[in-house]
DNA sequence: GAGTTTGAAACT
DNA sequence: CAGTTTCAAACTC
């Protein structure tokens, strides 16, 4: 929610901490008001003018009030003085009188006695008035006498009735320190009334009429007088509902924690079409509505200042700012509503103001947190059609082992967000067509628990949960190795069987297919594991030494596959990695598996593909490749061979090819590095909405940065080259780096974002993640589970662009600003006229471009369709048009002009002149044709 | 294309 | 956590 200009009246009081704009679609009238106020804020006092207006309105109101009170059954209410006599800063003490006076203007002290045990106070009195305000006097407990409590109302006045309540309490108010003002909304017939139980005296304000000014209650002495204003709804409460308002706090129901809940910054439209434009919240306040019912708030009319007597509710779906929830009060979920800004030392208000007119409704609807876990490693890859968090898991099943696999994949929980468990059935299917030493042909459903959290998408395969027999050869113990893939933003988990067996290069592969979830088909010579619709394959497994790295593929499911390829290679103890394309590439290169004699297309390899070279006990030979890297390699750039190891692949063409020289990274290849600081770079949010329409293969690299324009990572289309000069492309300033990409065809200087500087790059990645674990997560995600509406995960912070330029990340992503945004002067909300104008312009421009493109295409097509007329026909005839040359044209024009001149001399009419010229033009054409014909006769036939 | 503006990231 | 600086992209001329 963008900040807005504070209410001048409030600002002058200096007590209201935070004023936020809920919505701001303003009518022209409102804009005029706003403009006026802004001007007056600069020097002209608005207060005086407003007060005069208030005074005038209260003149009438006081008479009405007096008349109404005559019939009132409320005891002891007396109007001592005409309201019209009240002026700003005027204190009107009433002494011991059981009456009070209304303060109507800012700094006007309203003094009224709150007497204990007087006739004016009735116990257990239910305040059932349509509109009730309860005020607790400060330090009432300390006084046995009448208490003159000064309550300051700024620009607001309410008819007051002194009442009290005791006994069973529906509202417990701590009056020892603070004064609480509760504004009760009108109650539906079937709802309980507000019962107030107080140790001392309660003064309630019961309005008789409507007020004319924004209900900005300002306490000039917050420490001693009115410290908080809480509008408590009872409109939906049950009889037994208890609203605890200790110290002017409001508690959010457990099931409705507001943390991380955001709503699009759209106006809080009232049924009447009006909208709430401001809401002011104080810090250290809680809203309690344990019933989880909508929280109603009092709404004042910005234009008239009246407080409506109808139910007002406001959507509390976006606590990011206006309803910012800082932390839960209890472990069960109540959260603190606070303002983001403001002086924490001050006590402020929960004050909602204003709406455009009375009778409007604002609904405070507690919104529960998304209960589903955040998706694991959802890269905004293209070509996804599902929201399933996808975890690509592959198992290496050694020959002779049972195909049953039980794997537990746990994502390290980094935040307090509740995590849930996603169970994925894991089946191991042995294709009947493949010879296998394993007799088990059936499928044994296994369970994979994917404990997703909102934090770092670290993925750990618990070794204990991995039966050794299932993963490797006999006696082998599974080892889980978290792996950082350079350039990748998702974590890899390497399931390694620490086998002691030496593997022969010529080990014959016994492929099986391990499938998670429904198996759509059995792939020969491959292990495939499907989670959701994603597939993980281990291709051409060569031995029980097969190790593999499992990328936590983007939480988008799709048809992308991750294949794990085992490559026979020389037994080596050195760390060798063979990188496979993380993206589907168009290459036709294929990998020849010498053992299985199978040829595997590299193009089949998909993001995060990795493989381990067999034949070594060491954790070597892992093959991983960032998604985009192969493309870069294919482009012949950014790949240096120095200090890089390469693995030769046998291609179908018979040529050896150094596919992917990759530096050995210690942090990715260190044996027994279970606890090593691997860098989990993953996206924990769903892919942007727009991705779903893209049909590319998934790309595991999330695109969190600007280049995720419109929710679609530009990688899917194009990625702008960076121009970094000072950051070495190792900071998030660099879009390439921020997107987990290597710089490629960029204009950067002193670039370290390449494999030549992998070590520095890794350090930089770590550094970024230390600062912000979500640094590499997509900035544009979905607001909540199942919600298709995209939003900026952090919100923008624009100050001057109005969020209508590409400086704004929200606007750039073509999404509306939300309550998470801290922008100022935001115009990027749904009903923004400026935004609409821009959208129209953009649409029009786009339409024009499309039209032009279509026209170009059409013209081009037509031109292509046009027969090319040779100047000489097939028969050797020189066609007439070939004679229409410059000199012919000029001669013709001379003839026409001569005719026209003659006609003018003959004083012909215009029509006759026209005919004459046309006739001459026909004659010229005929002459040209005749000449052509004569030429034809002259051309000898060939 | 140079200079300015802007806001996120980085830094203090 | 807030204020300041740095940085590169967006924007303007």
From TrEMBL:
It comes from the Eukaryota. InterPro entries: CRC, Lin-54_fam, Tesmin/TSO1-like_CXC. It is found in: Nucleus. Pfam families: TCR (PF03638). The keyword RNA-binding does not apply. Keywords: Nucleus. Residues 1-37 are annotated as: Disordered. Residues 23-35 have a biased composition (Polar residues). Residues 718-831 form the CRC domain. The keyword GTP-binding does not apply. PANTHER family: PROTEIN LIN-54 HOMOLOG, TESMIN/TSO1-RELATED. Belongs to the lin-54 family. This is Protein lin-54 homolog isoform X1. It comes from Limulus polyphemus.
